[in-house]
Write a structure and sequence with these properties.
Elements lengths: L4 E11 L12 E4 L16 E5 L17 E2 L1 E7 L5 E5 L9 E10 L10 E4 L15 E5 L19 E6 L1
Parallel strand pairs: 3-9
Antiparallel strand pairs: 1-2, 1-3, 1-5, 3-4, 6-10, 7-8, 7-9, 7-10
Organism: Mytilus edulis
InterPro entries: Ca-dependent_lectin (IPR051077)
Protein name: Short-chain collagen C4-like
Length: 168
């Protein structure tokens, strides 16, 4: 397998709905072969599919394709020879001694939605499938910097935030 990967589970990114006031704040990589529980009558739905919301206005510069309203795929992989992974926000390259797994753009929910984790989304991201309906569960937007309490320099105002995932 690529980059010494020994095993991967492929799936779809899921998360809590953008409008829910409670529940999980993290995005999850949900496997494509779930072992489902029993159906319930009460409504405490907190797990939805995640869509890219990266059309023309929220698309990071340099990211390929228009994936607006497309579902987000994911992979959970095991590498026998690499034991440490870290995501570095604000960089597109790893520091000396580290190997780049991929680089991309920092994304999360819109600033007016419920809080979510930041994700480093590969600059060559692809949709889960070709379905493009607007279901608005958990959403991913490209984010920008805001100078003030974030010191500029070294940062620049209103710029895409790069990221890289590194292994050692």
């Amino acid at each position: 397998m690529k980059n010494g990967i020994n095993f991967c589970i492929l799936g779809q990114v899921g998360g809590n709905d953008r409008g829910n006031k409670a529940g999980g704040v993290n995005y999850l990589c949900l496997p494509n072969d779930p072992e489902n529980g029993e159906s319930q009558k009460d409504d405490n739905a907190q797990l939805f599919g995640t869509e890219y919301e990266i059309g023309s206005s929220y698309k990071p510069s340099g990211m390929k394709g228009d994936m607006y309203n497309k579902e987000v795929p994911c992979a959970m992989c095991f590498q026998k020879r690499k034991s440490v992974h870290m995501m570095i926000p604000g960089r597109k390259t790893c520091y000396k001694g580290w190997t780049s797994e991929y680089s991309g753009f920092l994304m999360t929910a819109h600033k007016t939605h419920s809080s979510k984790d930041y994700l480093c989304v590969d600059k060559d991201a692809e949709p889960y499938d070709n379905k493009g309906s607007n279901e608005d569960g958990a959403l991913l937007y490209g984010i920008r910097t805001k100078c003030g309490s974030l010191r500029c320099p070294p940062y620049k105002d209103a710029t895409d935030v790069r990221c890289v995932v590194c292994a050692k």
